[in-house]
Backbone:
């Protein structure tokens, strides 16, 4: 990629060229911008949002239950730590849900 600029100008104009080596003279041709078709992403966007919501809601609570059960079994404090970590996971899930709803409502 070569760049060309005008001498003595304060503004620099950058031009991009493609070098075609299959030509006999190996001439650099100016790069042509191609308009690419817009992709349909609305379906994938909602599918991604649903997956994100599922993980953000379920994962903290499930991890709280798993870790709490193991700690309760180790220290003999049945079910105090499990309940505490489950409630902490619920708080994290609600916070994450509020953040996602804010982000989606700003984009809409």
Residues:
């Amino acid at each position: 990629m070569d760049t060309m600029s005008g001498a003595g100008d304060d503004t620099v104009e950058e031009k991009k060229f493609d070098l075609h080596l299959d030509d006999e003279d190996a001439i650099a041709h100016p790069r042509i911008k191609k308009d690419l078709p817009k992709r349909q992403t609305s379906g994938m966007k909602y599918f991604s949002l649903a997956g994100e919501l599922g993980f953000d809601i379920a994962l903290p609570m499930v991890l709280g239950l798993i870790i709490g059960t193991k700690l309760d079994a180790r220290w003999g404090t049945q079910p105090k730590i499990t309940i505490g970590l489950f409630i902490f996971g619920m708080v994290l899930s609600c916070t994450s849900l509020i953040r996602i709803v804010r982000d989606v409502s700003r984009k809409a």
Remarks:
- The beta strands are 17-19, 28-30.
